[in-house]
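ARCHIVE CARD
Drawer: 12
Card no.: 0347
Subject: one protein chain, sequence and derived structure
Cross-reference: see card 0346
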Amino acid sequence: MSESILVIVEHADGKVRRGSYETLGLARRIAEPAGARVAAVVLGSDTASLASEVASRGADVTYAVEHAQLGTFTPDAYRPPLVELIRETTPEWVLMAHTYLAQDLLPLVAASFGAPILSDCVDAEVDGFAVTFLRQPYDAKFVARMVDRGAAPRFATLQSGAFPAEGLPEGHGGEIVTRETGLSEDGLRRRVVETRSTGGGTVDLGAAEIVVAGGRGLQDKEKFEEIVCGLADLLGAGVGASRPVVDSDWLPHEHQIGSSGQIVAPRLYIALGISGAIQHVVGIRGAQVIVAINKDKDAPIFNEATYGIVGDVFEVGPELIKAIEEARQG
């Protein structure tokens, strides 16, 4: 069998990011009917445990590429070993989750092959290796069906939450191949001298299982922190926001969710005082359960909500916090 699908695995803090497992799920969906193998590649300075984890979750072969210069991501360092691997293995498709890292890296890799990228795809129609990807441009006002009719390798990135990862096997037992790369610091145009956390947060919204978000209905920063941040702390959730909150400087831009912010796909998304403009809604459609609290019964957010509470957020929010605290105390 040929290794016809390659997944570029993204990881942070010693953990594989959920979007990479979602990408692996689509790779298996494409490869299995064709009798092809799914390959994955993990780049870093200490990849053994990550490669083992990916191999156990569905990759038939996982390439572990190690080098000191790969310990911290830079597109200059990641591009050469990826281009070398793709030239050697000649996959039909190279897939990656649509993240900031992917947007920085994959265009450089694809350009080395003179290939385009089908980006931020939300669904796929599979017919062998002929895959039609679906995208939602213009804030999801349209659905675009796109086909890459060029020669392999072809490249695509997948929107967070659009492709399920729940069906991946456990204990798959895929092969692990360690690869060396001849990177030299002299050949790199840039290097990371320092990494700082922004916004004071420690939860990655793209990977958060629960996200609590607030909108301008909270009226001011103090109430936002009391209700939204208070509920998030209680649930161990990420804190999100609509654009008016960020424009009002209640939170940094890193917390903004929507077409001009982050796309999230948590198991639970709680929207407090968010009306539900289309620009925000396109960022949460991957959520499994959406709970919306708004005093306007006609707010568009209720069209997306799994559960809706028509009520004053200043009354419902504190009562919700109180109920959770009491439940935890038994």
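Annotation on reverse: Confidence is low (pLDDT under 50) at residues 199-203. DSSP finds nine helices and 17 strands in the chain.
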